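Possible regression after last week's pipeline update?

I re-ran a chain I had predicted before the update to compare outputs. Posting the input and the new output here so someone can diff against the archived version. Not blocking, just want to make sure nothing changed silently.
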Amino acid sequence: MHASRQNIKVQQLVTCVAVILFIIKLWAWYITNSVSILTDALESTINVITGFIGLYSLYLSAQPKDSNHPYGHGKVEFVSAAIEGTLIFVAGLILIYKSILNISSPHELQKLNSGIVLIFISAILNLIVGLYASKTGKRNNSLALMASGKHLLSDMYSTLAIIIGLIIVSITGFMWIDSAVALVFALIIIRAAFKILRQSIAGIMDEADLKLLGKAVTLLNTHRKADWIDLHNLRIIKYGSVLHLDSHLTVPWYYNIHEAHKAIDELETTIKSHFGESVELFVHTDACFEFSCKLCQLESCTFRKHDFIHKIDWTIENISANSRHQLP
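New output (post-update):
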């Protein structure tokens, strides 16, 4: 719950900064008549809209589970990110259209020095808040916050490029450079939108996160216990800042309920030591069979039917499969 509150506070900061930056960039466009600054201002309108959408989604995702949402409300973050990606994409198309029109008939720019100073200030604010939002979102597993942070950082990069373009315009007097810079960064904006959309759709569809699974497999191999004879059917699903981990754990057949539960507790402690407390585990225990003896490293077992041959290292493929590990 602490992470959820922190996410909301950071998103509140992101939203306030988005409003301030929008005002600054509108002012800069008004005094310069620069189409590249206008592209920056139009993108900031998207920042404001998505800032409020992200804030609402984080508030909703922080709500506790209820009878209608037994896994919580975290999925709304994926919807929020999808809306943000769509709006960014639309803004990019509008910017491309306006940039092409202005390349064919460039117009005179005014008070470039004042405009450059204003948008440079906005770039610094974007950098500071974007890094903070991205870092907090990554630490708290919040896609909505990470999307907001990435959006602010991409906005910062485009603003810096626009500053460079305006400096070149002021030196050379070539007004078409202003629109050319705007066109290039409109394409970059569209690329960023596709990445956000791809990630949000993957979350909505519960697509397997191979990077996350890889981290989990490495962790479990490193801290593997002797009575964790086999681990399979492992699945990790992300709901907002909460990770849900399902798996089947094979333990010695003669374990009583307390002993089996102790093995699960050790598994849970290992997972949470790396991924934090925002993890829910649903572990089904299986009893070992005779063929498991050849893979079992439990030296204290008095019911062994076969000698231990070798350990099977867990991989993403065999730990995700819905079948027990066996020697060929």
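Follow-up from reviewer: compared with the archived run. The chain has a mean pLDDT of 80. Marking as no regression found.
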